[in-house]
Amino acid sequence: MSASDFDGVVVAAGVEVPYSRQPTTGSTGELLAQAFGSLLHESGLSAKDIDGLGVASFTLGPDHAVDLAWRLGLSPRWCMDDCHGGASSINLLQHAIRAIQHGDANVIALVSGDQFQPSDFKNLVENYNLTTRTWLRPLKNGGPNSVFAMLTQRHARRHGLTRADYGAICVAQREWASLNPKAVYRTPMSVDDYLAAPLVADPLGRLDCVPVVGGANAILVTRDDLARGPKAVRVRGLKCLYNADHQVGDGLETSLKQVAADLWRQAGVSPEDVDLVSVYDDYPVMVLAQLSDLGFAADGDLRALIARIASRTLPVNTSGGQLSVGQAGAAGGMHGLVEAIAQLQGKAGDRQVKQAKLAVVSGYGMVEYRYGMCANAVVMERA
């Protein structure tokens, strides 16, 4: 398997509907339609050119992808719903690439997003899956914060880290966010500000916990000869692994650790070659876990890795990440992908990484009762 596995397909565009902290009167379907319209504008295509649609959303129900297709006036030859949370978008991308290569579609729009009313989020965290509803909801544990607080405690003990070490990641991402006009949270933050924030679930403070917002993202995957414009992005490697340890491990390693070697071999590059990284950042601990699993701390020195992130020597989550831009439900799994596309296309404005040619993006999520079951990653290059 090699980068040639992805021949004939490019990612032509990526867009983001600006996230909003306060719920609006619009529905999730309207947000997804807005993202789809922005995607057409960005790509120079029209709705009649789209013959594939993939959708990831927690709150689109009772509608599904086919209902959204109808509302958008589409008659797709390929249509897919995805329910893998933070891993949804890379999962959709994998399937879209294969669909195009095998002639099932030529131009596929992938959209993701959510609009949360307070009752929507409460319902989601209490009924995330059967395990959550049966075993965690009766405990009134408050959702994933308590689960990842315990995971952070284990991680800190194993690696000898302090709260300030995790805070350095939040501060670095806020510095990136200050350069992103679409970030919901752009106010400068120091480590002292981070440490002073109220505790939510020891050792997690308010600034460790990804803020819930509404919003949507979309990307366009197309046959390479149909892409308009010179700034398409190619995939060099993509690997997924789900439910790797059946929830019997300690959660400090994701399944990225098991697929990383194959990912880099397929892409024909190494972590040292990468110009920027987007990792799923629902909590700072998961930033470190995924980066380590991908090989960015090959010697196991997480303090050195944190120093590279804090100094922005290693550009990580250059949009500000979900910790500063916000987590728009299932859109959180596409946010980092859209940011990497923008960077590789040279469209990131003041936060543009100079001469960005190679990026890696990871997805993580779908907590069972201890931690996420899904992880995947994609290596992309400027075409």
UniProtKB/TrEMBL annotation:
Domain (Thiolase C-terminal) spans: 246-367
SUPFAM superfamilies per record: Thiolase-like (SSF53901)
Q: Name one GO molecular function term.
A: acetyl-CoA C-acyltransferase activity
Domain of life, source organism? Bacteria
Database matches in Pfam families:
Thiolase_C_1
PANTHER family, per this entry? ACETYL-COA C-ACETYLTRANSFERASE (PTHR42870), NON-SPECIFIC LIPID-TRANSFER PROTEIN-LIKE 2 (PTHR42870:SF1)
Q: What is this protein called?
A: Thiolase family protein
